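Slide 14.
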Amino acid sequence: MKKSDREIMEILEAYDATESAHSAAQLAGVDPKTVRRYVAARDQGRPVTGAGRRPRMLDEYMPKIEEWVERGNGKVRADIVHERLVAMGFTGTERTTRRAVAQVKAAWRAGHQRTYRPWITEPGLWLQFDWGEGPKVPGPDGVLRSTLLFCAWLAWSRFRVVIPAWDQKLPTLIACLDATLRRVGGVPTYVLTDNAKTVSVDHVAGVPVRHPQIVQAARHYGTQVHTCVPFDPESKGGTESTVRLAKADVVPTEANLREQYGSFAELEAACEQFCAKVNSRKHR
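Slide 15: predicted structure.
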């Protein structure tokens, strides 16, 4: 019968006090063999409170599997690992190898997780913006056209601005930025966005080359445009969250039960209502 954690600790404590298996067994009320088993497990560094694990024929190959997973940045395939192990003399099945590789990959991911820390900002320092896919509304000719949602997020105050648009060309972008700054009532020190062609025309040695017109617009308003790390949307999570919230509330879906828009003006009114709702709500 397996002992409870408390009983195991009492057995080990009795052995440490007497340094004799028979004396400790008398104090703990167990068999001396039980005392020796738990003491041996503790001295060998094996877990004494959990279920024991029998030795596996793959144990001697585990250091090599860990090396291959580390070299492959956690992406090495289990079938490739099994082929290499068979060439080294391993006689087990591929299922055993897959289980071991999955275990090593899980440990590798646990040790290489991205660390998230609170972003402590200053008032008026950062403004983030991004584009999201909006609903389809009738255009001037009556034909349904796709729309876009310009979503801006002012750090520290968490003030959000959502503006619908027909496209995300450079003139539209500058017009949306102008409308956002007017709603905010000021100009932030930095504006952060992704690496769209309207902002960064190229990357040279990893350094983004800004679009000359966006640089002129930023100089006109007295701010600086920065871009996040390519293919890393988490580096501008504030505006990513704004896009997600705006699409969940403004775009008609089965979840929000919102009806389709009859005109672009109705979409604009819905965006204004969304901004009024989220900006008037007290943040926790």
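Speaker note: Residues 146 and 219 are 32 Å apart (CA to CA).
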